[in-house]
């Protein structure tokens, strides 16, 4: 196993619960980035030629090792991101399951036989794309990285992985555990901030797989347009929650609170804006304010004070523009990066808190006169990640899932969905399948083969 030994920068990370300094963010220099890509390129042909069953066995071994290190990874995740212990452990367990999933799916990933001339054989054969640059986020560092690393490695690609600079120890340790079960240079690890990520994304790789912010995703698209690499992106979202007339407002408030406040609102598919039918708006808002108070004692901090300041800026901007606070909305005293569950009413589509991704524990609410207006406003957005609709009207449900221009529509459950579901985000939210068996297709390229016998010698 060969790992990049990074230098250090002056950037520090802090425990978001206490404000204590954890340490500096390691920073790979440009030469280290180039060396990691070159090494992964040199190892690519050997790993691609490794039988799929052997690659799967390596991933199974890695998954077992991650399970054995679950306590360590849980602690690192909590220290760097502020996740409560149960949530952090859930992310590690999900990562183990995902590695096993791709270890099982990799050997049965298949091509097609075409029906051509009966005297010949025509095949569509999938093969690895080559070198995959994987850039992963901090909000669920083990679970997200496990998917991209697992799918890339199972299909015979080599990988250069840069975890988020907000959780460098978690990301590095997780990748080191996997790399220990692979041949040298099949998985290289880089630490660093956006400069390192930008250099990696613009290097001579074959795929750039990124989960993170939309602004970064746009830069990656531009870089890939120059290099010819395939961009696989899951970026920001501004996910709406539609609350229809006729639903129980207390239950709807529970769903809204779960979607807006879980992990302090730092989930890619968090509820970012709420459109509630006027018929149930008053009891819904009362119940949601009560939910915010109940959630206040059980959520962790935000990842750092920089993100907290941006969330609070959006809240203050909404208040200045006419919104009203029903719960929260004030910066707390004390150490760390805590922010209270916040409910805003009288929001308008022009407010930043309603028009952009907030990524904090904020539930901005807008009252609408009817279901059609709610759907129209939910769809009027540059993002296209996910949406949730709470309704007891099956016709409304059918119309909603067919018409909303997003990758995932959830009816009557903000985090519902069967295992293995894979969606393609739209617009500013990214491109390509980022989950499930379809991710194996993203990590491979197809070669068409026509095999025909030569004529007999004359």
How is the largest sheet built, in terms of strand order?
A: 12-13-14-11-10-16-17
Helix content: 40-55%
- CATH first level of the largest domain: Alpha Beta
Largest sheet: 7 strands, mixed
Task: Give the name of the CATH superfamily of the largest domain.
Answer: Aldehyde Dehydrogenase, Chain A, domain 1
Overall body shape: globular
Count of the domains: 2
Task: Provide key terms for this protein.
single chain; 458 residues; alpha/beta; Aldehyde Dehydrogenase, Chain A, domain 1; Aldehyde Dehydrogenase, Chain A, domain 2; 2 domains; 7-stranded mixed β-sheet; 6-stranded mixed β-sheet; 20 strands; 42% helix; 21% strand; disordered N terminus
Task: Give a short synopsis of this structure.
This protein is an alpha/beta fold. It has helices spanning 30-49, 52-68, 70-81, 85-105, 141-154, 168-179, 194-201, 214-227, 249-261, 278-295, 305-320, 352-355, 371-379, 394-403, 438-442; strands at 7-14, 21-27, 112-114, 120-128, 131-135, 158-162, 187-189, 207-211, 230-234, 240-243, 273-277, 324-327, 342-345, 362-368, 383-384, 386-390, 408-411, 426-427, 430-431, 444-452. Pfam families: Aldedh.
How would you characterize this protein structure?
This protein has helices spanning 30-49, 52-68, 70-81, 85-105, 141-154, 168-179, 194-201, 214-227, 249-261, 278-295, 305-320, 352-355, 371-379, 394-403, 438-442, and strands at residues 7-14, 21-27, 112-114, 120-128, 131-135, 158-162, 187-189, 207-211, 230-234, 240-243, 273-277, 324-327, 342-345, 362-368, 383-384, 386-390, 408-411, 426-427, 430-431, 444-452. It is an alpha/beta fold and 458 residues long. The chain has two domains: 7-235, 3-Layer(aba) Sandwich (Aldehyde Dehydrogenase, Chain A, domain 1), CATH 3.40.605.10; 240-411, Aldehyde Dehydrogenase, Chain A, domain 2, CATH 3.40.309. A seven-stranded mixed sheet has the order 12-13-14-11-10-16-17, with helices on both faces. β6, α6 and β7 form a beta-alpha-beta unit. Mean pLDDT is 95; it is low at 1-9.
